[in-house]
Design a protein that fits this description.
With about 210 residues, the chain is an alpha/beta fold. The chain has one domain (about 5-205). Helix content is about 55%, strand content about 15%. The protein is built from nine helices and five strands; from the N terminus they run E-E-H-E-H-H-H-E-H-H-H-H-E-H. The chain has helices at about 25-35, 50-55, 65-75, 85-100, 110-120, 125-135, 145-155, 160-180, 195-205, and strands at about 5-10, 10-20, 40-45, 105, 185-195. Strands 1-2-5-3-4 form a five-stranded mixed sheet, sandwiched between helices.
């Protein structure tokens, strides 16, 4: 099982599980975490709208992949079967619902995300990013593990200041929401994409305002 970061927050213990979005093998990682933690609640790095969407997927669902998603999936596929929507989140919600455990969306809501994105990413940055994406689509991200791969591609795509600011703000938002949730549950399992899990853990440990 992948290592879980355990943080004491008042009378609660927050268990942060980093997951690889897309890999079907992450289903077993999530199951093992549930068995190990026996959580009173599960927080996921999804918005409320995304959680609602996963609970109401149409039977003929077909994912719409951005160019970034296509590049991400192409490289990730060498580490195992890839599926959409991300199996790690689908499993977390299904297991929690079957066990009567509350699911708490801790990622930024869609309206706030849109506002943040527009404020952070300029037209010039978008233009530069489209050109850079084309170059990155022709690049091979050398990695021995899926963990190494997702970190490398994350750094490559978010090294521009605007995009980096968006991800930093997401991490701060998720840390605040996790701290709020910890006030109400003694054992909280927090399922976060591998790329942001370390940032969120560090912010929680540092007690951001």
């Amino acid at each position: 099982m992948r290592d879980i970061t355990r943080l004491s927050v008042g009378d609660s213990t927050v268990h942060i599980l980093p997951v690889i979005r897309g890999l079907t093998s992450e289903i077993s990682t999530v199951r093992e975490a549930f068995a190990s933690v026996n959580p009173e609640a599960v927080a996921v790095s999804l918005s409320k709208e995304e959680v609602d969407g996963l609970r109401n997927l149409p039977t003929d669902f077909e994912p719409e992949l951005s160019r970034y998603d296509e590049i991400y999936v192409q490289g990730l596929a060498k580490f195992g079967e890839v599926a959409a929507p991300p199996p790690c989140y689908v499993a977390a919600i299904e297991i929690a619902d079957s066990e009567g455990v509350p699911v708490l969306p801790i990622d930024i809501d869609e309206a706030s995300y849109t506002e943040l994105y527009c404020a952070s990413v300029s037209g010039t940055t978008l233009f530069r990013n489209s050109t850079r994406t084309w170059h990155l689509s022709r690049r091979t991200f050398s990695a021995d593990t899926p963990e190494q791969y997702v970190m490398k591609i994350d750094r490559a795509f978010n090294n521009m200041r605007g995009f980096r600011n968006v991800e930093n703000q997401r991490a701060e938002w998720m840390a605040r929401e996790t701290l709020k949730a910890a006030k109400n549950f003694g054992r909280l399992l927090t399922v976060i994409e591998f790329e942001r899990a370390g940032d969120v853990a560090g912010l929680i440990d540092g007690r951001p305002p």
